[in-house]
């Protein structure tokens, strides 16, 4: 093979090369009749007939269809979309097809035409029509004919945002977007150019930014990094500016008649213009340099991160800036360590000793590690298998001279190349460069393969790269479930392949089986699922609530238990009996159910309690409920329910207390009717207090008797009530009327508390215990009286103690 | 860096948990650009204040803070974050807020942050209310947070109600918090659990430990986990706490490691309560928090003398070097001095409340009499009711009485229940039922199980001053909970040695799990020979300050080779425990 640099074009200080990926497999496709939409990273092509071209199509079958081809031109599927009008087509990263129809509906298809999701951008009744649309990897912008600008940033969570348009929007010539992760606001920005020489920048929640230009924009494209904007004007000039419009990088007059069919970015800051009518593909660099490629057939440009894919009727090519690591290896007249190593490796093959000397020279210059690394990386970037092999050989040879070289890098590159070369074969048709592969990640590559149903290759790649096989296996199983065959065969084949793997989501497989109508298979598959969070929702869907509830309880997750319970409550198919039957004997489920009902559905709770034969709980619940209302009749009603409940639960004490409370409430009610007193809501003690304070003694007595208030309590209540009203005389009479059942200390205490020591003194003589008497006298500083007690008790130590505490001027006797 | 060298290092390491949660908070705020308004579930205000302070709020551009209440709501800020416990009853309020805010501005960014985890029923409710689409839902996994150098709490959980309702739904969250703990501090080597709830948590832990732990976590810093189900010992929280810290909690109430005091307690004027942080960063407090009130006076006197002497050293300092040493000493000395002043004031106030002739002193004597010998004090209990003492106090003592004598006789049982209902209101029929459910109050049936517990576990020890026994935290009563934990360390066979007592007298179960294979453990223990073993004790359903003091005393015993970190769903005292049995006033 010749030196690859022979095919390079020097351009703008760099080298560019065009590589033929494929000769197209398709036949009789004339791209000029189609609108093409390609998926990034060397992905699929969607072709749809261009309505704007008045052409004779012989075959009806071409109309209303989207054709999906690989980049190598192999037809994968045709999607029949019926009588709608397509306004835009795009691809998600994992190669789902996003189609925007004129009626503002958006559909997501898998590559075999199955609808995954439908989103309506406007209300149907509005009958809005799409004027223009931009579709990108996960979002959509629509400009409607009624001048509304609608944006969805994520199709996974389609929230529709409406951006404010300028009041007077001229005729739109082009529309483009800046992706959310490139903008300051973190949201998508939309650029709209109009015939009246204006460019608008529209963002969420902000007024449109208007830029007036010298001439009108015909087409505009944002660079893959989001930093640059290229636009083509009516006068035939190409401009490159920064997206913040601070800097102008280029103005280039194309001197070409007509406007380009397509503008595309190529490897950074170079722009491609597709003047299809002139058979010209014009490449323009930042320093006014340009290069012309001639095509005598229609082409479609696909901007990739490191170059441009060029699809024509016959070929799939790739135009890119030659990666910097390759250049010094092959560039004629330039020498680099990697180039020396490469040459040395070639010399080895020819069995000359020159190779060894060269390598020792590089080693001596301490450049061998760099040389090996460069050869490795260059191998990754090379398209030709032969060159790849040579470079790998050079790297392999070089590293044997190095002590402690990190060999993993070599192994990884070898594996990566195996993967890339494998998917590049025309039947898979994924023309992914090494740069793209590193950017997209293995996960996405595998996802795409699985979407294409290349399970086996995906699995082999996982094994080769030591990636988790779970996803591939599950997807394989899901496709397997859909296949024809007996349930048993399918189950056996799935379990035999997947049974030993850890972390396989059998629930997602079961879910597919269920939606395919294979219910028995679904349940059997679900038994292999380990995660309850996966199992339970599916069992509910399959109308197996009891099984779901058991699994939920086993998991201990309250949310899952609630999921089952709520489903049963809300599903009219489940009668209460059925529901109670299921949750009976399941303590945790009952507890959670009670918690929920207490807050949301008390009526249901009562039913549950009676079903579970727990009338005491009904009684108690009704008591709690009664404290949430002030309505007397309502309270009485609830109280009666409680009473009945307690009597059926044979809880005699509660029954008695409740009946007593009913009696008491009636008593209070009557009292309020007869007197101006307000007593409802008060306890028995409080009511007694009120009655005594307001001198309703007869009623107080009646209350005491009716509810057999113990004498002692009555005395306390009355004493406190009188004291609080400072009715001291009455209190004294009360205390003298009969012998106090509570002693007289409380009387002294309450007088002291109210700072009426003269009153307190009256009760002290009535106290039995002499020592208590002394204590109180001392507290009231009546030392003589205290002394008297001590003397009468003939207690010398007590007397001495009293004397010691008394002020010196008081004459406390020394002896008894 | 070993966790188990000194108390300060325990604190340093534990701080990681706080930082992690703070980082999480910042991350959530950074989901949006511009000013932020936080709207908090009122039940989250206090827990959040444990990890999110004003500077952090400022850093996160939080300019407005609201509590979610039944009120009109409007704000000019367009980025709203609702921080919610997954409480079903709050969702309609959230919906109201969102709707009224959408009227003000159509371009709001609304986030509903569930703490600690999302809840399906709440989401369904939001969906039903038609606001699910307007907001993004996220989780804020606020798990174990340090309350002090050796105390962790799960501030978002209030687990006390669950004790009554037999609600096990939160146990998974508890287990998850312990799994997270292990992510930071390595795998536990053994788990000892006691009580039904503990068993469930231990089961979950065992499952996850065997299935999904990385090698990184093999290097365990915490040797042992003890999980204690509060229902095994509900008596101890009822007993009046008589450590300095415990008594402050009983009298003034400690919240998030702070106490609010009336100014006059501190000898100041004014009406506004004064907030005093009480934790191990206070040099005096860390010395006295675990002391019994009756030994505090002596201790404080000594400390004052000590500080005075150090101040005095200024006059004796002659050479420049000595003066320099003195100056170096000044800042910590001044800090101590200041702190000492505060604690003297608080102490004097406590002495006034608990001193001779006080109501509290009498009550404590009665309480101790019950616990020591099973004395019956029905007249006193009756009088408490007739005096219309605080119902919490009455029920605490009544429950203690019921437990120590193995239940009340039929007549007494009905009598007290009736007197309580008459005096405090009919709704307390529910309270009494709940106390029965908890086993705190009961009718006499069969024998007295408490007597043999007291005897076998030495629950009462008058000699605590001399022996420095854990019973000093209640002036004689040793908390059953801590005695049980002590058994694990004092007896080679641990709980097996009291199998009968646990199964029959306490009526519960226990278990022990070895998570690290024997040979590995012996390797580890070689390294750890010189350091104390570190043990995390998790209380499901709360722990009292007195119990924590008792654990600290345990680890400070001469022959002790264990250091404790305490984790709990919440801090608990007798009044709080009684209050949980009150009827729920929510709908």
Automatic annotation (TrEMBL), chain A:
Domain of life: Eukaryota
Gene3D superfamilies listed in its UniProt record: Vps16, C-terminal region (1.10.150.780), YVTN repeat-like/Quinoprotein amine dehydrogenase (2.130.10.10)
InterPro entries the record matches: VPS16, Vps16_C, Vps16_C_sf, Vps16_N, WD40/YVTN_repeat-like_dom_sf, WD40_repeat_dom_sf
Start and end residues of each Vps16 C-terminal domain: 504-808
Ranges where the Vps16 N-terminal domain occurs: 4-410
Pfam families: Vps16_C, Vps16_N
Entry's family note: Belongs to the VPS16 family.
Name recorded for this polypeptide: Vacuolar protein sorting vps16
Organism field: Anaeramoeba flamelloides
Automatic annotation (TrEMBL), chain B:
Pfam families given in the database record: Sec1
GO biological process terms on file: vesicle-mediated transport
Family: Belongs to the STXBP/unc-18/SEC1 family.
Protein's name according to its UniProt entry: Vacuolar protein sorting-associated protein 33a
Originating organism: Anaeramoeba flamelloides
């Amino acid at each position: 093979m010749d030196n690859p640099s022979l095919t390079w074009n020097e351009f703008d200080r760099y080298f560019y090369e065009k590589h033929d990926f494929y000769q197209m497999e398709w036949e009789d496709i004339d791209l000029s009749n189609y609108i093409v939409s390609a998926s990034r990273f060397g992905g699929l092509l969607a072709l749809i007939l261009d309505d704007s071209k008045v052409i004779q199509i012989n075959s009806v079958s071409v109309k209303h269809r989207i054709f999906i081809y690989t980049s190598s031109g192999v037809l994968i599927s045709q999607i029949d979309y019926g009588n709608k009008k397509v306004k835009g087509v795009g691809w998600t990263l994992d190669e789902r097809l996003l189609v925007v129809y004129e009626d503002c509906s958006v559909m997501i298809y898998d590559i075999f035409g199955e609808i995954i999701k439908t989103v309506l951008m406007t209300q149907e009744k509005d009958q809005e029509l799409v004027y223009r649309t931009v579709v990108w990897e996960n979002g959509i912008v629509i400009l409607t004919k009624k001048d509304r600008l609608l944006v969805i940033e994520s199709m996974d969570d389609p929230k529709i945002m409406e951006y404010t348009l300028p009041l007077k929007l001229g005729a739109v010539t082009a529309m483009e977007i800046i992706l959310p992760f490139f903008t300051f606001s973190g949201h998508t920005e939309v650029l709209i150019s109009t015939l009246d020489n204006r460019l608008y920048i529209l963002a969420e929640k902000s007024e449109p930014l208007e830029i007036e230009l010298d001439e009108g924009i015909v087409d505009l494209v944002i660079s893959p990094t989001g930093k640059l904007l290229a636009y083509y004007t009516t006068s035939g000039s190409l401009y490159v500016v920064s997206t913040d419009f601070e800097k102008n990088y280029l103005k280039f007059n194309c001197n070409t008649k007509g406007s380009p069919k397509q503008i595309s970015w190529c490897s950074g800051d170079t722009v491609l213009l597709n003047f299809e009518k002139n058979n010209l593909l014009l490449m323009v660099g930042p320093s006014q340099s340009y290069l012309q490629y001639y095509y005598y057939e229609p082409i479609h440009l696909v901007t990739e991160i490191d170059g441009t894919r060029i699809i024509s009727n016959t070929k799939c090519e790739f135009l890119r800036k030659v990666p910097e690591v390759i250049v010094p290896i092959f560039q004629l007249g330039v020498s680099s360590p990697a180039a020396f190593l490469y040459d040395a490796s070639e010399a080895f093959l020819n069995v000359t000793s020159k190779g060894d000397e060269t390598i020792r020279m590089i080693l001596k210059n301490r450049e061998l590690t760099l040389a090996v690394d460069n050869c490795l990386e260059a191998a990754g970037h090379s398209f030709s298998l032969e060159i790849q092999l040579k470079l790998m050989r050079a790297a392999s040879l070089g590293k044997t001279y190095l002590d402690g070289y990190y060999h993993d890098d070599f192994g990884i590159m070898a594996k990566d190349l195996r993967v890339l070369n494998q998917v590049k074969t025309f039947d898979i048709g994924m023309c992914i460069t090494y740069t793209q592969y590193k950017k997209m990640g293995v996960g996405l590559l595998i996802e795409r393969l699985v979407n294409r149903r290349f399970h086996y290759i995906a699995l082999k790649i996982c094994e080769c790269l030591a990636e988790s096989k779970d996803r591939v296996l599950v997807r394989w199983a899901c496709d397997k479930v859909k296949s024809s065959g007996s349930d048993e065969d399918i189950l056996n084949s799935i379990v035999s392949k997947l049974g030993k793997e850890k972390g396989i989501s059998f629930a997602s497989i079961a879910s597919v089986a269920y939606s395919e109508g294979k219910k028995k298979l679904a349940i059997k598959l679900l038994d292999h699922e380990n995660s309850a969070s996966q199992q339970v929702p599916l069992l509910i869907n399959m109308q197996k609530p009891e099984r779901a509830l058991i699994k939920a309880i086993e998991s201990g997750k309250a949310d899952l238990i609630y999921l089952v319970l709520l489903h049963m409550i809300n599903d009219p198919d489940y009668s209460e009996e059925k529901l109670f039957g299921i949750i009976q004997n399941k303590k945790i489920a009952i507890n959670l159910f009670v918690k929920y009902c207490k807050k949301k559905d008390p009526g249901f709770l009562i039913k549950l309690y009676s079903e579970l034969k727990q009338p005491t709980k009904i009684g108690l619940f009704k008591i709690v409920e009664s404290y949430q209302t002030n309505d007397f009749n309502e309270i009485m009603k609830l109280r009666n329910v409680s009473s009945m409940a307690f009597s059926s639960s044979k809880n005699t004490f509660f029954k008695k207390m409740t009946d007593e409370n009913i009696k008491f409430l009636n008593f209070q009610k009557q009292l309020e009717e007869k007197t101006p007193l307000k007593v409802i809501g008060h306890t028995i003690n409080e009511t007694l207090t009120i009655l005594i304070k307001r001198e309703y003694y007869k009623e107080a007595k009646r209350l005491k008797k009716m509810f057999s208030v113990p004498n002692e309590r009555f005395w306390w209540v009355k004493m406190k009530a009188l004291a609080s009203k400072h009715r001291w005389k009455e209190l004294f009479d009360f205390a003298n009327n009969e012998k106090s059942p509570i002693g007289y200390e409380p009387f002294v205490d309450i007088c002291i508390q109210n700072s009426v020591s003269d009153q307190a003194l009256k009760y002290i003589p009535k106290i039995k215990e002499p020592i208590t008497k002394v204590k109180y006298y001392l507290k009231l500083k009546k030392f003589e009286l205290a002394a008297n007690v001590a003397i009468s008790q003939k207690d010398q130590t007590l007397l001495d103690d009293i004397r010691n505490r008394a002020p010196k001027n008081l004459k406390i006797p020394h002896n008894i | 860096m070993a966790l188990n060298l000194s108390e300060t290092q325990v604190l340093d390491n534990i701080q990681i948990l706080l930082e992690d949660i703070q980082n999480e908070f910042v991350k959530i705020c950074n989901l949006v650009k511009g000013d932020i308004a936080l709207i908090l579930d009122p039940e989250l205000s206090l827990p959040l204040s444990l990890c999110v302070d004003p500077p952090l709020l400022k850093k996160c551009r939080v300019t407005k803070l609201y509590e979610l209440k039944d009120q009109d709501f409007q704000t000019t800020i367009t980025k709203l974050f609702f921080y919610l416990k997954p409480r079903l009853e709050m969702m309609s309020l959230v919906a109201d807020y969102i709707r009224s805010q959408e009227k003000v501005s159509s371009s709001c960014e609304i986030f509903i942050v569930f703490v600690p985890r999302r809840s399906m029923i709440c989401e369904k409710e939001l969906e039903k209310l038609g606001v699910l689409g307007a907001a993004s839902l996220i989780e804020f996994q606020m798990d174990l947070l340090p309350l002090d150098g050796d105390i962790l709490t799960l501030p978002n959980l209030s687990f006390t109600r669950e004790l009554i309702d037999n609600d096990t739904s939160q146990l998974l969250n508890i287990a998850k918090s312990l799994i997270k703990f292990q992510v930071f501090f390595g795998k536990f080597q053994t788990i000892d659990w006691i009580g039904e709830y503990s068993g469930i948590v231990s089961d979950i832990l065992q499952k996850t430990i065997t299935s999904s732990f990385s090698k990184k976590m093999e290097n365990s810093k915490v040797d042992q986990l003890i999980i204690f189900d509060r229902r095994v010992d509900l008596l101890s929280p009822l007993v009046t706490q008589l450590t300095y810290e415990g008594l402050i909690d009983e009298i003034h109430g400690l919240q998030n490691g702070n106490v609010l005091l009336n100014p006059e307690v501190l000898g100041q004027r004014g009406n506004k309560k004064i907030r005093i942080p009480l934790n191990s960063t206070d040099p005096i407090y860390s010395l006295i928090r675990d002391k019994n009130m009756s030994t505090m006076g002596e201790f404080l006197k000594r400390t004052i003398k000590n500080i005075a002497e150090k101040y005095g050293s200024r006059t004796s300092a002659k050479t420049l070097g000595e003066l320099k040493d003195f100056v170096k000493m000044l800042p910590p000395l001044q800090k101590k001095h200041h702190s000492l002043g505060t604690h003297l004031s608080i102490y004097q106030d406590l002495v006034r409340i608990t001193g001779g002739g006080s109501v509290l002193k009498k009550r404590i004597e009665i309480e101790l009499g019950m616990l020591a010998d099973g004395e019956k004090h029905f007249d006193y209990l009756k009088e408490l009711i007739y005096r219309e003492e605080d119902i919490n106090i009455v029920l605490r003592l009544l429950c203690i009485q019921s437990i120590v004598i193995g239940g009340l006789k039929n007549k007494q049982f009905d009598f007290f229940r009736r007197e309580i209902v008459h005096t405090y209101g009919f709704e307390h029929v529910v309270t009494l039922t709940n106390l029965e459910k908890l086993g705190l109050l009961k009718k006499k049936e069969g024998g007295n199980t408490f007597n043999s517990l007291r005897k076998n576990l030495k629950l009462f020890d008058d000699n605590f001053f001399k022996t420095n026994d854990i019973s000093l935290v209640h002036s004689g009563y040793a908390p059953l909970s801590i005695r049980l934990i002590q058994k694990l360390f004092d007896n080679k066979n641990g709980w097996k040695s009291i199998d009968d007592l646990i199964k029959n007298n306490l009526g519960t179960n226990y278990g022990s799990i070895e998570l690290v294979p024997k040979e590995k453990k012996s390797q580890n223990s070689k390294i750890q020979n010189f350091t104390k073993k570190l043990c995390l004790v998790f209380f499901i359903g709360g722990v009292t300050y007195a119990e924590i003091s008792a654990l600290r005393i345990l680890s400070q015993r001469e022959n002790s080779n264990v250091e404790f970190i305490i984790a709990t769903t919440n801090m608990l005292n007798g009044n709080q425990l009684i209050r949980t049995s009150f009827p729920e006033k929510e709908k």
